[in-house]
Amino acid sequence: MAQQDTDQQHAGVLPVDDEGYVIDTEDCEKREAEWRERGTSRPITVVGNPVLHKECKDVTDFGEEFQQLVADMFASQRTAEGVGLAANQIGVDLKVFVYDCPDDEGLRHVGVVCNPKLVELPAEKRRLDDSSEGCLSVPTAYAPLPRPDYAEVTGQDEKGNPIRVRGTGYFARCLQHETDHLYGYLYIDRLSKRERKAALKQMAENEPRYPVVAND
Fold first, then answer.
1. How far apart are CA 205 and CA 207, in angstroms?
2. Count H helices, E strands: the chain?
């Protein structure tokens, strides 16, 4: 069983390390550019739109239409100057996110995760980082939010192969943030009522630097 799992991992889009986690730090510039150049940037959906506030559907079809969606997500992420983007942030009800994000050592990570699930961490790995957090769907607003400084996610790559992704620091925050999106949670939902109100006020008082979908 363990050997079969390893074979499946090596059949994926990205190589894996000795522990079975994807190696997403190689050829980042090339891989991101290849996706982005095939895509069309779409406006970002903002807080209040129903698609952001419900659990998304599982990805089951990894065909051409889905590949185009991923390309569009990379293009949209670059336009918005983001480090991660979930499908519902461009109005698509599917469990997939893309990322182009540094970790706490400055290493760049680029990849795609479908149907992600956060791995529950043992107590000894739950060191909280209370850095500030923002979101493309809550433009111009930031607030401190404690999250573990290490995260693991299981799921599938853009071809449907099983994958495991792990990250530290800022990248760990990104993995948690984007997985939250696909289950209907924004980072402001994890804030106190007062902090959430302050974040929404920041958003209301400033103009986003990228195209957004206005809520009716």
1. 7
2. 5, 11
53 is in an annotated binding site: no
Q: What is the pTM of this model?
A: 0.93
Q: Dihedral of CA 98/103/109/112: which sign?
A: negative
109 is in an annotated binding site: no
Neighbours of 103 (CB within 10 A): 19
Other beta carbons less than 10 A from residue 115's beta carbon? 18
Catalytic residue of the set 178, 195, 205, 207: 178
Q: Which residue has the tokens 């620091």?
A: 169
Active site residue 37: no
167-211 pLDDT, tens digit per residue, is 999 999 999 999 999 999 999 999 999 999 999 999 999 999 999
Q: DSSP strand E in the chain: where?
A: 44-45, 84-86, 96-102, 108-118, 128-129, 132-135, 138-144, 147-148, 150-156, 162-168, 212-213
**Which positions ≥6 away from 23 have C-beta within 8 Å?**
14, 15, 16, 17
Collapsing DSSP states into helix, strand and coil, what is residue 133? strand
How far apart CA 22 and CA 110 sit, in angstroms, is 10
| 177 labelled binding-site residue | yes
